[in-house]
Amino acid sequence: MTSITPSDAFAIIAGRVHRTPLMTSESLNRLTGLNLAFKCEQLQKTGSFKFRGASFAISQLPDDCPGVATHSSGNHGAALAAAAAARGLSADVVMPENAVASKVEAVRAYGGRVHFCESNQVAREAGLQKLIDLGKTPIPPYDHEHIIAGQGTVALEFLAQSPGLDDLVAPIGGGGLLSGITLAAAQIAPHVRVTGAEPAGADDAARSLASGKRVSDHRPQTIADGLRALIGIRNLAVLSGHGIDVITVTEQQIVEAMVLVWRHLKQVVEPSGAVPLAAVLASRQRFTGRRVGIVLSGGNLEVGALLREIQ
After folding, report:
1. Please, what is the end-to-end C-alpha distance for the chain in angstroms?
2. What percent of the chain has pLDDT over 90?
3. How far is 71 from 77, CA to CA, in rounded Å?
4. Which residues of the chain does CATH 3.40.50.1100 include?
5. Which pLDDT tens digit goes with each residue over 233-260?
6. CA torsion, points 105, 110, 115, 117, in degrees to nearest 10?
7. CATH class as words, domain 6-48+146-310
């Protein structure tokens, strides 16, 4: 698939990204009957793991790059804008018209130019193509070997911080994070079982893996806005090639997992970031008696809107 590995990426971006902390909670372990460790990527620069892949992808561009472009629901766009700005490059980001307002604001705050489109995959990709036609260099959010390798550095850090892990569980939208983690684990800790977690309302990865081909019917309906993207071609190939399972969870299970993280870890995570914990709790028997590593992928939550809802 690619000769570029997460270890290659880590050697370049180690000084540019945060080495995010590992957290555990005795009270949560008692409540669930499980042995859980959390990798806190909500504390990464720009508020999600996406800064890893974006930083590595930007580092690989030539000096005469005319600027970069992508499509994103928010986190990749913000990460790419920040990484591009650090190198003096412009960043144009195609975003769905129903994107979370705070994520739109974040892209702009990091220097990105936002271009809105209809909230479907075809419109996102068409919007990106227009920018490519104008000469911009595309950095897709997940279906890109540098992005995959950069996201895989999450697993390299996690396994170094907690070498006794039996499982790694991460969310999947387009698949950049999960495929990167899969490659990293296969490289340095093949005994570790990698599992994906996905909303039932955006279960294209689970359906694609089950059928053996990338699904085309994808109409995501989930509060986990970061996981609404259709799984990438490269990403599906990596996951299917390594026999990765994906657990799907309900919207209620996602909300309950968010509450548990807030209550026991005292950390703010967005819905996408809580999906892996929801999946572990929904398939408790699969993880009983094992040391389970959970990736909290991001913390870019629209807190103001949430507070208005409960007032």
Report:
1. 50
2. 90
3. 7
4. 6-48+146-310, 50-143
5. 999 999 999 999 999 999 999 999 999 9
6. -60
7. alpha beta
Widest CA span in the chain: 56
| Full strand arrangement of the beta sheet holding 245-249 | 22-23, 35-40, 291-296, 167-171, 193-199, 245-249
DSSP codes, 54-88: HHHHHHTS-TT---EEEE-SSHHHHHHHHHHHHTT
Considering just the CA atoms, what is the radius of gyration of the chain in Å? 18
Rounded to whole angstroms, the Cα distance separating 224 from 219 reads 13
Q: Are 104 and 94 in contact (CB under 8 A)?
A: no
Instruction: Of 177, 180, 174, give the one whose Cα is nearest residue 48.
Output: 177
Identify any residues that bridge with 293 across adjacent strands, giving them in sequence order.
37, 168
Q: Which CATH architecture has domain 50-143?
A: 3-Layer(aba) Sandwich (3.40)
User: What's the whole-model pTM score?
Assistant: 0.94
